[in-house]
Amino acid sequence: MMSPNAADLDTLGAALADGSLRVEVEQVFEGLEGVRDAMERSMSGRVRGKVVVAL
């Protein structure tokens, strides 16, 4: 397992800022009540990108 270091985090931050690194979000679920739906969506095997639960 890797541990983060300042140089790598700076590189990732710069890539996010300049658009060369994108994070694709499949769907956002709201609140704790969305956790079950988010988990079901994630386990469906049909997800392209990240499933997010916004608290």
Structure notes:
- The protein is an alpha+beta fold and 55 residues long.
- It has a domain at 22-55.
- The chain contains 2 helices and 2 strands; from the N terminus they run αβαβ.
- The longest helix has 13 residues, at 6-18.
- The radius of gyration is 15 Å and the shape is elongated.
Radius of gyration: 15 Å
Number of helices: 2
CA distance, first residue to last residue: 28 Å
Provide the spatial order of strands within the biggest beta sheet. 1-2
What is the residue-averaged pLDDT? 92
Order of helices and strands: HEHE
Which class do the helix and strand fractions yield? alpha+beta
Shape: elongated
Query: In percent, how much strand structure appears in the residues?
Result: 15-25%
Specify the biggest β-sheet: 2 strands, parallel
The helical percent reads 40-55%
Enumerate the spans where pLDDT stays under 50 for 5 or more consecutive residues.
Answer: none
**Total number of beta strands:** 2
Task: Give a topology summary.
Layout lengths: L5 H13 L6 E6 L4 H9 L6 E5 L1
Parallel strand pairs: 1-2
In short:
About 40% of the residues lie in helices and about 20% in strands. It is of the alpha+beta class and about 55 residues long. The chain has a domain at about 20-55.
